[in-house]
Amino acid sequence: MPLSPERREEIVSAMINTIGEHNNNAALAPSELAKRFGVSGQSIARIIKKLEESGRVLTVAEGKKKSFSLPTVTKTLEYKTEGLDEESVFASDVKAFISGVPECPYKNFSYAFLEMLNNAIEHSNGSKIYIYLIKNEYRLAFLLMDDGIGIFKKISDALGLREKRHALLELSKGKFTTDPGSHSGEGIFFSSKCGDLFTLMSDGISFLSAPDYNMLIDDVVTPLMRKKFRTGTEIFFEIKMSHTQTLAELFQEYTDAPESYGFTKTKIPIRLLEYGDSMPLFLSRSEAVQRMITHVTR
Question: What is the DSSP letter of 4?
Answer without folding.
Answer: P
